[in-house]
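yo

u said u wanted the structure for the complex thing, so here. seqs first:
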Amino acid sequence: MTVIRFEGDELEAHPDDNVAVALYRAGVRTLSRSIKYHRPRGIFCLAGHCGACLMRIDGQPNVKACRTPCRDGLVVERQNAFPSADLDALAAADFFFPRGMDHHTLMTGNRALNVVMQKVVRQIGGLGRLPDQPVATLPAPRRRHVEVVVVGAGPAGLAAATALGRAGRQVLLVDEQDRPGGSYLADPRFGLAAADRAVQCARAAGAEILRDAAVLAWYPEDAPATGAPPGLLAVHVHGQGLLRLTAERYLYATGAYDQNALFADNDRPGVLAARAVGRLLVQHGIVAGRRPVVLGAGPYARALAEALQGAGAEVIRVDGVATRILAARGRSWVNGIEVLDPGGAKPRRISCDMVVVAALPAPASELPRQHGAGVTLRPEAGGFACIVGGTGEAARGVWACGDVTGFVGPAAAAWQGTAVGEAVARTFVDQP
Amino acid sequence: MSDKAAAMSGKTAVMSGKTIICRCEDVTLDDVHCSFELGYATVEEVKRYTGLGTGPCQGKECMVLAARLIVSVAHLGGAPATVAPFTARPPLESAPLAIFVAAAGDDEDPAR
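structre next:
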């Protein structure tokens, strides 16, 4: 057992849990308060994408709890709340502005009053306070050049790296999570065994996996160390400095982001993305919710509903189309939803202790876009999907595969990864 | 009432609390509709008017929701392919400033 410190209390955590999961396991439901209305925020995506679990960790503000591993003595605090995140007096902002605050119309005619108003707004709004201590030693930057860099160690990236490794290419697989496997780890149809198998295959083929490494951007104008063409990936390796990464070929298997549905109070803690609930179940053995509502007909709806049911939960399915969801109920955690049945005149209440949003994930196409790839809005594929040719080429020297090219799910993503990895390997032979 | 106004008027008929479209910046569905009413109906304009997508997640959760609303409400079912995303600015992930500070002195690249 690992012991972390949460707002003065000692809290036992599983060594494999990140801070967000450890707090969830310990019954802490409100992780932070929102920037403007001070609405309670809890876990939503558990993948480091949604920004709902920012906490003050070891004196550093705005650290993602779901990306921070637990270790003995780690100091975890909630931010943006007075006097506490559980009972935040500043949430009055939410009550006093039921129709919202439009900052375009908040200006008053009086210049002095504007200055005062700005001070007040700055106290109420904002995200965290500065760190307790200045940085003692700056983390040393590094540079690295490889033959092929693959971004994203999910089903597509792992398969592509395996194919490239088998073809004898030097591959560096960069992944932002602490454990490689991507959506395998969130999908009860695949799970830990499938993830570990894919990771072993990639390693056996000679691919190197760099975990806890978030690619911050493609900087087209920055020069690499040697005479290679301009442009480099800026990578933040957790706990280390900036890595300037260059390659002969770039392959993006960045996957897709979990999306929320639109209904009143859809940001209430207890409204979780399907893959977050999948992660809790598959990766951490936690059955989140005794009476969960699985909302939507997205690709993870059925698998999650069946897995939760199999784990003993009483699952209610609401498709969100014929039966529409109007609102979530509950203050610090959901305790029900209001729905409108087809042809129904009056809303009906369903009690539940969790809302599992099974929406179609949206392609994570920002990075290939920065690198010259085109995207097109394809609502049926989840969002702005990367446009690729037959072999996955998205721009000159740039390839993409898996959900980033339009949501396909883990099985098809792995298949695409193999095909695109092989195609990229062939380009070294075709154009030496 | 125009078709567009009719489509918009139904927006809060059965809603009670706030519907949050951008969790990071507390941007509501009403804020986005307000931006449409003022004629800001591209993803980039909605971002600039409401602040949606300018928080820690940089639009990972809200940009596609906004794009879908633009297609269904502002364009009344127009072609999705005409809707463009907002610029993907670096950094895509939050990171400590110290790593950039540390790398700043290291910028005298031999290639420059």
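Chain A touches chain B through 78 residues (CB under 8 Å). Residues 296 and 321 of chain A are 8 Å apart (CA to CA).
cya
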